[in-house]
TrEMBL record:
Topology of the protein relative to the lipid bilayer: Single-pass type II membrane protein
Family: Belongs to the glycosyltransferase 18 family.
Catalyses which reaction(s): N(4)-{beta-D-GlcNAc-(1->2)-[beta-D-GlcNAc-(1->4)]-alpha-D-Man-(1->3)-[beta-D-GlcNAc-(1->2)-alpha-D-Man-(1->6)]-beta-D-Man-(1->4)-beta-D-GlcNAc-(1->4)-beta-D-GlcNAc}-L-asparaginyl-[protein] + UDP-N-acetyl-alpha-D-glucosamine = N(4)-{beta-D-GlcNAc-(1->2)-[beta-D-GlcNAc-(1->4)]-alpha-D-Man-(1->3)-[beta-D-GlcNAc-(1->2)-[beta-D-GlcNAc-(1->6)]-alpha-D-Man-(1->6)]-beta-D-Man-(1->4)-beta-D-GlcNAc-(1->4)-beta-D-GlcNAc}-L-asparaginyl-[protein] + UDP + H(+)
Annotated protein name in UniProt: alpha-1,6-mannosyl-glycoprotein 6-beta-N-acetylglucosaminyltransferase
GO cellular component, one term: Golgi membrane
Species of origin: Scyliorhinus torazame (Cloudy catshark)
Subcellular location, record wording: Golgi apparatus membrane
Length: 198
């Protein structure tokens, strides 16, 4: 509450979600939009909210070609080159795993999600400590984990958008409808963040 009182005017998205400077509006926002607070007792929780879909939800299909993912990741940084090499090297295993999962799930329909992934640890704003040490035997565990996460989400058929600069994150957040992302920018630009919009 203290943080909200001090910063609720810092971004127009708070007003968009009904925050007007009152404690009540803070509680409603934190309960219903950010989920930091439990549901408010005076809200009717017996009925499910009506969800209006403006777009037809697409089905996710397993992918076997990683060319699009490698292109989405961008280029130029040693850390990205390392992550791409790992994805290429393990692509056969990812494809086999997807085929096995498909058999186990007996071709159940899965919803394709739009996912924005911000690799904040690679940004200039965060100091990109990984790229300079990749070829010198530096700590690669973080890059391995994120290469595997990207490959997993991609092979499962989700629609990915990947950013590695704060400017690109802000542009994509607005353009792709990841509006809640904008609330977190001051706090996450030095971290890795995954946002899903479905």
């Amino acid at each position: 509450m203290k943080w909200m009182r001090a910063r609720w005017t810092s971004d127009p998205c708070y007003a968009y979600y009904g925050v007007d400077g009152t404690d009540c509006s803070f509680l409603v926002y934190l309960s219903e939009k950010e989920w930091f607070c439990p549901p408010l007792p005076w809200k009717n929780r017996t009925t499910s909210p009506i969800r209006i879909e403006t777009k037809v939800q697409q089905q996710a299909f397993y992918r076997t070609d990683f060319a699009q993912l490698l292109e989405l990741m961008g280029s130029g940084k040693e850390s990205l080159i390392f992550m791409k090499k790992r994805i290429r090297r393990l692509s056969t295993q990812w494809i086999l795993a997807a085929q096995n999962l498909n058999q186990k799930l007996e071709t159940r329909k899965r919803q394709r999600k739009k996912i924005l992934i911000h690799l904040g640890f690679l940004t200039e704003e965060a100091g990109d400590v990984f790229s300079p040490v990749v070829s010198k035997g530096g700590p690669l565990g973080e890059l391995v984990q994120w290469a595997d996460i990207l490959a997993t989400l991609y092979v499962l058929g989700h629609s990915l958008k990947i950013t590695a600069t704060l400017r690109e994150l802000q542009r994509r957040s607005k353009a792709e409808g990841f509006f809640r992302t904008m609330l977190l920018l001051p706090r996450i630009f030095k971290a890795v963040a995954i946002y899903s919009c479905w």
